[in-house]
Amino acid sequence: MQLRTTVNGAAETLEVGPDESSLSVVRERLGLTGAKLGCGHGACGACAIQVDGQPVASCLLPALKLEGRQVETVEHLATDDELHPIQRAFMAEDAMQCGYCTPGFVVEAAAFHDAWRARRGTASPSRDEVAKALSGHLCRCGTYAAIYRAVIGACEGRFDAAPEAGAPLVAAGPRVDGLAKVTGAAKYTVDVRPEGMLEAQVLRSPHAHARVRAIDWSRALALPGVHGAVRMTEIGHKVRFVGQEVVALAAADIATARAALREVEVDYEVLEAVVGTEAALAEGAPEIYVNRTHKRAPNENELDLFPVRWKANLRGPFGMFARQAGRAARRIEDDAEAFSGTFETQTQVHTALEPHAAVAEWIGDDSLRVHLSTQAVSHMAEELAKRFGLRRDAVEVHAEFVGGGFGAKAVMPIEALMAVELARVCGRPVRVANDRREELIVGGLRPALRAEVQLSVPPSDGGNTPPADGEAPQPALRMHTWADAGVAIGSAAAAMARIHLPQAQLDLADYDVITNGPPGTPFRGPGGPPAFFAMEQAIDAHANALGRDPVALRRGWNRNPARARVYEWIQEQALWRDRPAPLADRGRYRRGIGVATATWPYFVEPATQVTVAASSAGFRVSMAGQDIGTGTRTLLAEAVAAVLGVPVHTIEAEIGDSSRGTHGPTAGGSRTAASVFPAATRAAEALRDELLEVAEARLQLDAPVAVPGGLEGRPRGDGAAQPQFVPWSEVLAVAPAITTTGKRKRDQGGYFLPPVAGLAIGRHLGAGAQITELEVDTRLGRVRVLRAVAGLSIGKVHSPTLARSQVEGGMIQGLSFALYEERRLDPRDGTLLTGGLEDYRVCGLGDVGALEVHFIPGGFEGVQGRGIGLGELCTLPPAASIANAVAHATGWRPTQIPLRPDRVLAGLASVAQSTEGSQP
Amino acid sequence: MTRLVPIRLPKSAAEALAAQAELDAEYRAGGTDLQERRAHEHEPRALVDLRDLEAFGDIEPDAGGLRIGAGASLQRVADHPAVRTSWPGVAEACGALGTPQVRAVATLGGNLAQAPRCWYYRHPDHSCLRKGGDACLARGGDHLWHVCFDTDPCAAPHPSTAALALLAYEAEVELALPAGSAAPEAPPKRERVPVEAVLATDALTQIHPSALLTAVHLGAPLPRERSAYVRASSRALAEWALVEVCVRLRLGADGVVDFARVTVGAVAPTPLRLTAVEQAVVGQPASPERFEAAAALATAGAKPLPMTGYKLELLAGAVLTALELARDGRPSPDTIAPAPLGDAELSEPASQGDR
Ligand SMILES: Cc1cc2nc3c(=O)[nH]c(=O)nc-3n(C[C@H](O)[C@H](O)[C@H](O)COP(=O)(O)OP(=O)(O)OC[C@H]3O[C@@H](n4cnc5c(N)ncnc54)[C@H](O)[C@@H]3O)c2cc1C
Ligand code: SF4
Ligand code: FES
Ligand code: FES
Known about the structure:
The complex is a heterodimer. Chain A is an alpha+beta fold.
């Protein structure tokens, strides 16, 4: 049907289908890719556009409803070269990480801002008003704290004026790619559309366990518009979970591909399936892997797999990190007061707002260009070259912007392999992009974990004295865990105790229970959040039971300086120091305060190489890496800017392309900052030194020295002259094009684990803590976080504003894990039930209390760059911190998350029955 | 090969009914429910899109009450000054559901007629009782969010938030139905039925396959009423309620409750009116003890499923909270202008548009 509408001020007449969405019109027809497809069912707001000034979810709005309306997209918010105040505010407050949700938030917040200003002038909206107005938006990176700051600030009129007169569109704010994100200009993999591109759809197994006997796709291939298909499961092989890829097919458009898949016939021999760990361990349960297929099980962890005993569906124990396990067991047995408890955490899915997506294109027979939503352009290019027998430099992997990853995009995605295979078969570029349901099935997950914990602590030393080295009496911990990573293996959760309590006696065992569920993949701090949920609650509960101070108790046995700084920091915080007695409130709402701590290592990729180039156009830094929202572009620019003493925004940072250098690190394992910053600094220093030489030779200066923004030197031979300042631009004007590269030097004393496959584990540990204040509604079972303060000891903080954003994001993801998120499968057949973002609940703006981030100074002198990463560390304490606060408020110790209202009510009822007011 | 179904954009109810009958089509109002479902259907039905229906979203005075066109967006209902003054529970409920982006587009009629949110029903590859299959998949499976008054073969709670508020106000809905044997171009028959008559499974299509919701009628307002809408959920906002409650109360000069309506949603196949609770508060002082005793009656007759027992405690808690909030809230005016403000007099719209 014909549609006449106005989009961004221009009249458009289009022929649209009855079911076509407004999102499809703006993105696919008009090429306005600022609005994003996040969920497709009205829950995330990434697709927001304004229709007659009102923000709407364009994914659900039929295009025909736009008839006669005025449509505004994010691309049109900045008019007359002037940004909207909301855009400036988002940049200045760094209300973005990966940026995938940002256009939607900006479109909605701009409408709210305009209406607010018209009615209320520069009055300040409350957090509640902002939360309600923006409640239709989700940010998986957790930028809510900054979004509050930005929206409230803009409504107060703080961002009305451009920061620099005369240059209204100039990028401002701490993030160098902020402008691209707030204007919708940032291009993600899903926005790439090469000429002639085909769309792929995937036929997935409807069975949790079956053998594929035959596939007949002849009728599908005969349909018009269908270009080719590839098998993703070999004939005779098994599929092991509902949703496993069986056939991928490419056609002219998605509807054609979907219709064609319905014509593909697969003959399955359906096998008995095991859903859930109980079924997997039952006597006579079908074996998901047999000896010869053990090697097919994917690894859900970042560590390499160690050989471990495997019996039917149980793999383990993995106990390599145990320490004096026998003595630990004996001590616990002998201690009548030892703590004993079981903690359970749920399956959490990554569900980055940009789904896994790949656009593959063959150039001739022997080179390949792949746009990939990935955390590892370098590594993916290497892998693809290997798999397809190509030269490394014949494979380009591009990821200009990446809409979040959290670990799930650090491993080779099957989406990339499907796109590459299909592109070869079809001779055309092919796009594979998961929809939200697919992403929630195969997009990666953190395994559910059951942890049995026992703890015995040394008798009280009566005080709070940190021990002299070597003398501290140590605790004994027994921690045995069972992970359900579906068909994946490699859990190492109990192993985390060795990092957190390295001198303790540790009886540690990790088991994988293999089930017919989608495979786990590394997720931000693999094993960490579940392990710390258990350990840090055990310590808290035990301290309370013994009537001892939980922080002093930890201090008593600690020997690590970063942890020592963190414990001291906790004890200085008013929120903690002045906390009320446990169970202080007796009414409907009960407040409580809890603390939890964590320790985490950092990885380094010593092969990381950063290039800095100088030309008359200015300075450019590049690396074969990517920015998944953590701020790698900014980090690079900052490192170079710091050496040269120039504003960060004058440095052009080029990443997101595997051909921009020999090697850039994978974004994961908290390795980016520690790998990239030192390499960029060295490259910049080398460049600076070359420029000094150039100046000496070409500008006739004696012994010039670098000063902020340029150099100073005396004219040659004139010892009496004042040294004169020469800005870099003048040096560049006479200099030849210069390129330098920097590598990362070894840390002092080397690494804890020297590089294996290019990856080293650093010698130092980062430490952190979170203090949470919350309120439990004992009537409706809701837990509301009012305030949370995080303290991190990680040494020097690069890009402090971005670092704060990262930490806030980690705290929010942790909160979301503790309170809301939960993947659920049908208990009979393993079908994913939480297939959208309404049922798979991630935290929204209204759920986040006031957050504070403290970086605790000191330490890390031996580390190159004097600082380490923090992306994982900050996401470890929240769940335990929240649980400890609930126990403090109510006397009920939550041992299972998420803390759904039904669990909270049941928990409260259980303590009401037992001893009223017992120690939590 | 993009799939193209026939579509009509009628201008009148008569045209809409005729087009529906001719094409065996489904009506599309805002599309916020329908489009998500259709996206996964292999053979979606033809469409009758209600975009161009004349006066479909009008809100106007009606015999001392109010007539709200079925095409009015939920946000507009929530913001309408007359609704806010005289039927505050309706305004509050419509303003609390979903998200601003959904409320701006979703219509009152569509909200009443929407399909269940059961995760089996919404699964593209599953066919349950409600989709022509032969069993309810939730019963033997995972029904954590389902009913605790298990009174129907389908265990999904009725999804409509607006419905429970309308029930509390004993609203009626107006239907346009084919005028029997008359010629197709004859004006349709208009019928007014209580709102609950269209809420049960398939009720609307059983009245007639072409039945079109054209309006909701709210009766004369009750002066000095106090109302509250409460939802229990995990997250603060934008989440489907585990339990939702609408309460209306009027207190006499002596502080004694002389009028009460209590309706609840998300617990049963249709929203329920809890007359036991109402009776327990009427004629009694609005005291904490009375309210607690009355709220405890909310679960009378409940039949939870194995996984939904928790909803009973939540229900009693939410009813109690709503009673308290209503008691402590500001009453509506002593006298209410006989002709409520029309659209033209909207003073301060909180939303800028209406689809
Ligand atoms: C994220 C999210 C959260 C939500 N939360 C809530 C919530 O908390 N509470 C709640 O109540 N709802 C909630 N909703 C649902 C939303 O309110 C409904 O989708 C909406 O009200 C449907 O209205 P519509 O006009 O878009 O209907 P449509 O999608 O156009 O139609 C819905 C159904 O009604 C039929 N229909 C529509 N109009 C008529 C008519 N006039 N006569 C006869 N049949 C008609 C259609 O044929 C279709 O079957 C939520 C939705 C989303 C996306
Ligand atoms: S509860 Fe209703 S909608 Fe859900 S599976 Fe059962 S019959 Fe279908
Ligand atoms: S994509 Fe439209 S709301 Fe998520
Ligand atoms: S910045 Fe919001 S989803 Fe990444």
